[in-house]
Amino acid sequence: MSLTDRLDTPEALQRQLGALIELDPRLAGVAERAGAFEIRRSPGGFEGLARIVTGQQVSTASADAIWGRFAQLEGALDPVGYLKLSEEAVRGAGQSGGKYRTLRGLAEAIAAGSVDFAHLAELPADAAIAALTKLKGIGPWTAEIYLMFSAAHPDIFPAGDVALQRAAEWAFGLDGKPPVKDLIEMARRWSPYRSTAALLLWRYYRAVRNKEGLSI
Question: For 112-193, where are the alpha helices, taking DSSP H only?
């Protein structure tokens, strides 16, 4: 599969889900239990990464509230416009000092032409993640979520996500959540459709948790 086969339409999702189950027939039962699921798309570029950074280490409700205030600042969603904002204004919207600096570094890199989002979307997974994590404050999870939901990259698997770890435990009868390194290795079998595998396991996690009344 070429990286030009973006995971960006319902038809692409169905094709890749079928191919994924052919690679690992165990996932047929997982898909049946999970039920139907869709792709969630997010903006790309500075705005997309800024939204993900905003959501780091805070609850969904808090992230939504902060983003709502931040997005109202004039120029906040454009890298050049962001660079004109004071730290006081950005932090007044609820962003932490660390996130202010992360976004400033990102805006400076984009303004300098050293970040090419279109090119990132065409790179193999490891290379795309490595390029994004060179930016200060952008860790693997942030890079993976951006590539999945903003760049429609078809071959990303955020193995550090607790819900994916738990889903793998339940789906494959493991003795506890698999360590990140083990889940990374497990997911290699699902390449080049690892993004679809992640979407499937997230949906499976929600289906099992909701039916069993679990809080984890």
Answer: 117-120, 125-133, 140-149, 162-172, 180-188
